[in-house]
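Form 7-S
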Amino acid sequence: MIRQPAILKNVKYQLETIPVYDAWASDATCPLCTLMDAAEHRHVNYYLGNSVMNPETRVLVNETGFCSRHFPMMREAGYAHHLGLVGHTHLQTVRGKMAGKLKSLSRRASAKAAVEFSSAVRSQAVECLICRSMERDLKRYSYTAVMMYGNEDEFRGLFEESPGPCLIHAADLADMAVETLKKNEMQYFLAALAGHLDSALEELEADVLRFTQKFDTQNDGMEWGNSRDAHARTVQALSGRVVRLKD
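Output:
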Protein backbone atom coordinates (compact mmCIF):
# COMPACT_ATOMS: atom_id res chain seq x y z
CA MET A 1 0.00 0.00 0.00
CA ILE A 2 1.33 3.42 -0.95
CA ARG A 3 0.35 6.24 1.38
CA GLN A 4 0.61 9.95 0.96
CA PRO A 5 3.55 11.59 2.80
CA ALA A 6 2.76 12.43 6.40
CA ILE A 7 1.66 16.00 7.02
CA LEU A 8 3.67 17.55 9.82
CA LYS A 9 2.68 20.04 12.46
CA ASN A 10 6.30 21.18 12.61
CA VAL A 11 9.67 20.12 11.25
CA LYS A 12 12.04 20.84 14.11
CA TYR A 13 13.60 17.35 14.12
CA GLN A 14 16.06 15.95 11.61
CA LEU A 15 15.61 12.58 9.96
CA GLU A 16 18.08 9.79 10.83
CA THR A 17 16.89 7.24 8.29
CA ILE A 18 19.92 4.95 7.94
CA PRO A 19 20.51 4.09 11.64
CA VAL A 20 16.77 3.78 12.30
CA TYR A 21 16.26 1.50 9.30
CA ASP A 22 19.25 -0.63 10.27
CA ALA A 23 18.04 -0.96 13.86
CA TRP A 24 14.63 -2.22 12.78
CA ALA A 25 16.22 -4.49 10.16
CA SER A 26 18.31 -6.16 12.88
CA ASP A 27 17.01 -8.77 15.32
CA ALA A 28 16.98 -6.25 18.18
CA THR A 29 14.38 -6.90 20.86
CA CYS A 30 13.80 -3.12 20.91
CA PRO A 31 15.35 -1.16 18.04
CA LEU A 32 15.20 2.13 19.94
CA CYS A 33 16.96 0.56 22.94
CA THR A 34 19.74 -0.55 20.60
CA LEU A 35 20.03 2.91 19.06
CA MET A 36 20.11 4.59 22.45
CA ASP A 37 22.71 2.16 23.79
CA ALA A 38 24.99 3.07 20.89
CA ALA A 39 24.27 6.77 21.40
CA GLU A 40 25.12 6.52 25.09
CA HIS A 41 28.55 5.03 24.44
CA ARG A 42 29.16 7.55 21.66
CA HIS A 43 28.49 10.48 23.97
CA VAL A 44 30.60 9.00 26.78
CA ASN A 45 33.53 8.78 24.39
CA TYR A 46 32.87 12.28 23.06
CA TYR A 47 33.20 13.90 26.48
CA LEU A 48 36.42 11.96 27.07
CA GLY A 49 37.91 12.79 23.69
CA ASN A 50 39.40 15.94 22.25
CA SER A 51 36.32 17.87 23.37
CA VAL A 52 37.93 18.22 26.81
CA MET A 53 40.30 20.77 25.27
CA ASN A 54 37.40 22.82 23.85
CA PRO A 55 36.75 25.80 26.18
CA GLU A 56 33.01 25.90 25.36
CA THR A 57 32.63 22.21 26.14
CA ARG A 58 34.57 22.53 29.39
CA VAL A 59 32.30 25.37 30.50
CA LEU A 60 29.26 23.14 29.89
CA VAL A 61 30.89 20.26 31.74
CA ASN A 62 31.86 22.47 34.66
CA GLU A 63 28.38 23.90 35.08
CA THR A 64 26.31 20.77 34.38
CA GLY A 65 28.44 17.66 34.79
CA PHE A 66 27.17 14.09 34.60
CA CYS A 67 24.66 11.94 36.44
CA SER A 68 25.38 8.97 38.69
CA ARG A 69 24.96 6.60 35.74
CA HIS A 70 27.18 8.33 33.21
CA PHE A 71 30.05 9.55 35.37
CA PRO A 72 30.90 5.94 36.36
CA MET A 73 30.61 4.93 32.70
CA MET A 74 33.21 7.57 31.88
CA ARG A 75 35.48 6.08 34.56
CA GLU A 76 35.10 2.63 33.03
CA ALA A 77 35.87 3.91 29.53
CA GLY A 78 39.54 4.13 30.48
CA TYR A 79 40.59 7.66 29.47
CA ALA A 80 42.12 8.44 32.85
CA HIS A 81 43.96 11.65 31.93
CA HIS A 82 41.01 13.23 30.15
CA LEU A 83 38.65 12.18 32.94
CA GLY A 84 41.02 13.81 35.43
CA LEU A 85 40.98 17.07 33.48
CA VAL A 86 37.19 17.05 33.27
CA GLY A 87 36.79 16.00 36.89
CA HIS A 88 39.17 18.64 38.25
CA THR A 89 37.46 21.72 36.83
CA HIS A 90 33.98 20.30 37.38
CA LEU A 91 34.85 19.58 41.02
CA GLN A 92 36.03 23.17 41.44
CA THR A 93 32.68 24.41 40.15
CA VAL A 94 30.70 22.05 42.37
CA ARG A 95 32.70 23.13 45.43
CA GLY A 96 31.88 26.72 44.64
CA LYS A 97 28.17 25.93 44.37
CA MET A 98 28.17 23.95 47.60
CA ALA A 99 30.32 26.29 49.69
CA GLY A 100 27.43 28.35 51.01
CA LYS A 101 25.28 25.29 51.72
CA LEU A 102 28.10 23.58 53.60
CA LYS A 103 28.86 26.71 55.63
CA SER A 104 25.19 27.05 56.53
CA LEU A 105 24.95 23.39 57.43
CA SER A 106 28.02 23.68 59.67
CA ARG A 107 26.99 26.89 61.42
CA ARG A 108 23.24 26.41 61.77
CA ALA A 109 23.04 22.61 61.90
CA SER A 110 19.30 22.97 61.40
CA ALA A 111 16.71 20.91 59.58
CA LYS A 112 16.21 23.75 57.10
CA ALA A 113 19.94 23.91 56.36
CA ALA A 114 20.01 20.15 55.90
CA VAL A 115 17.11 20.27 53.44
CA GLU A 116 18.74 23.08 51.47
CA PHE A 117 22.00 21.15 51.33
CA SER A 118 20.44 17.82 50.31
CA SER A 119 18.26 19.52 47.68
CA ALA A 120 21.31 21.19 46.16
CA VAL A 121 23.22 17.90 46.09
CA ARG A 122 20.37 15.98 44.48
CA SER A 123 19.76 18.72 41.95
CA GLN A 124 23.42 18.60 40.97
CA ALA A 125 23.42 14.80 40.77
CA VAL A 126 20.58 14.55 38.24
CA GLU A 127 21.96 17.12 35.79
CA CYS A 128 23.84 15.44 32.94
CA LEU A 129 25.18 16.52 29.56
CA ILE A 130 25.05 12.95 28.25
CA CYS A 131 21.42 12.55 29.29
CA ARG A 132 20.59 15.80 27.49
CA SER A 133 22.35 14.61 24.34
CA MET A 134 20.56 11.28 24.47
CA GLU A 135 17.20 12.99 24.85
CA ARG A 136 17.88 14.86 21.60
CA ASP A 137 18.92 11.61 19.91
CA LEU A 138 15.77 9.85 21.07
CA LYS A 139 13.63 12.66 19.66
CA ARG A 140 15.32 12.34 16.26
CA TYR A 141 15.10 8.56 16.20
CA SER A 142 11.45 8.56 17.29
CA TYR A 143 10.60 11.23 14.73
CA THR A 144 12.31 9.27 11.97
CA ALA A 145 10.52 6.04 12.86
CA VAL A 146 7.14 7.77 12.87
CA MET A 147 7.83 9.40 9.50
CA MET A 148 9.19 6.24 7.89
CA TYR A 149 6.25 4.18 9.09
CA GLY A 150 3.85 6.52 7.34
CA ASN A 151 5.85 6.90 4.13
CA GLU A 152 7.84 3.73 3.45
CA ASP A 153 6.23 0.35 2.89
CA GLU A 154 9.49 -1.53 3.47
CA PHE A 155 10.09 0.07 6.84
CA ARG A 156 6.46 -0.49 7.80
CA GLY A 157 6.98 -4.20 7.21
CA LEU A 158 10.10 -4.20 9.40
CA PHE A 159 8.24 -2.32 12.12
CA GLU A 160 5.36 -4.79 12.16
CA GLU A 161 7.66 -7.82 12.21
CA SER A 162 9.82 -6.48 15.05
CA PRO A 163 9.24 -7.75 18.61
CA GLY A 164 9.79 -4.17 19.81
CA PRO A 165 9.60 -1.42 20.73
CA CYS A 166 9.68 -1.80 24.49
CA LEU A 167 6.87 -0.11 26.40
CA ILE A 168 9.06 2.85 27.39
CA HIS A 169 10.00 3.64 23.81
CA ALA A 170 6.49 2.91 22.56
CA ALA A 171 5.44 5.83 24.76
CA ASP A 172 8.11 7.99 23.10
CA LEU A 173 6.82 7.04 19.65
CA ALA A 174 3.24 7.78 20.67
CA ASP A 175 4.25 11.20 22.04
CA MET A 176 6.15 11.98 18.84
CA ALA A 177 3.16 11.07 16.67
CA VAL A 178 0.96 13.42 18.70
CA GLU A 179 3.56 16.19 18.49
CA THR A 180 4.37 16.04 14.79
CA LEU A 181 1.51 14.49 12.80
CA LYS A 182 -1.81 15.82 11.63
CA LYS A 183 -4.84 14.12 13.14
CA ASN A 184 -5.49 11.50 10.46
CA GLU A 185 -1.84 10.45 10.25
CA MET A 186 -1.56 10.42 14.04
CA GLN A 187 -4.59 8.16 14.37
CA TYR A 188 -3.22 5.80 11.72
CA PHE A 189 0.12 5.45 13.48
CA LEU A 190 -1.26 5.17 17.03
CA ALA A 191 -3.74 2.47 16.03
CA ALA A 192 -0.97 0.51 14.29
CA LEU A 193 1.37 0.91 17.26
CA ALA A 194 -1.28 -0.26 19.73
CA GLY A 195 -2.16 -3.30 17.64
CA HIS A 196 1.48 -4.25 17.23
CA LEU A 197 2.22 -3.89 20.94
CA ASP A 198 -0.84 -5.87 22.00
CA SER A 199 0.15 -8.75 19.74
CA ALA A 200 3.82 -8.68 20.76
CA LEU A 201 3.05 -8.58 24.49
CA GLU A 202 0.50 -11.37 24.20
CA GLU A 203 3.12 -13.56 22.50
CA LEU A 204 5.73 -12.63 25.10
CA GLU A 205 3.36 -13.49 27.94
CA ALA A 206 2.83 -16.94 26.46
CA ASP A 207 6.58 -17.40 26.04
CA VAL A 208 7.45 -16.44 29.61
CA LEU A 209 4.72 -18.72 30.95
CA ARG A 210 6.23 -21.63 28.99
CA PHE A 211 9.66 -20.61 30.31
CA THR A 212 8.47 -20.94 33.91
CA GLN A 213 6.70 -24.23 33.18
CA LYS A 214 9.92 -25.77 31.87
CA PHE A 215 11.33 -25.70 35.43
CA ASP A 216 8.68 -28.19 36.51
CA THR A 217 9.95 -31.77 36.12
CA GLN A 218 6.49 -32.78 34.95
CA ASN A 219 7.12 -30.74 31.81
CA ASP A 220 10.45 -32.30 30.82
CA GLY A 221 8.96 -33.38 27.52
CA MET A 222 7.65 -29.92 26.70
CA GLU A 223 9.44 -28.13 23.88
CA TRP A 224 11.10 -24.82 24.71
CA GLY A 225 9.74 -23.22 21.57
CA ASN A 226 10.65 -19.54 21.60
CA SER A 227 10.77 -19.31 25.38
CA ARG A 228 14.45 -19.89 26.30
CA ASP A 229 15.16 -16.16 26.69
CA ALA A 230 11.61 -15.05 27.52
CA HIS A 231 12.59 -13.95 31.04
CA ALA A 232 15.20 -11.56 29.63
CA ARG A 233 12.90 -10.33 26.88
CA THR A 234 10.29 -9.57 29.52
CA VAL A 235 12.78 -7.35 31.34
CA GLN A 236 13.62 -5.68 28.03
CA ALA A 237 9.98 -5.10 27.15
CA LEU A 238 9.12 -3.55 30.51
CA SER A 239 12.30 -1.67 31.47
CA GLY A 240 13.48 -0.17 28.19
CA ARG A 241 17.14 -1.07 28.62
CA VAL A 242 19.40 -3.23 26.48
CA VAL A 243 19.74 -6.49 28.41
CA ARG A 244 21.79 -9.64 27.95
CA LEU A 245 19.40 -12.18 26.42
CA LYS A 246 21.60 -15.26 26.79
CA ASP A 247 22.51 -16.79 30.15
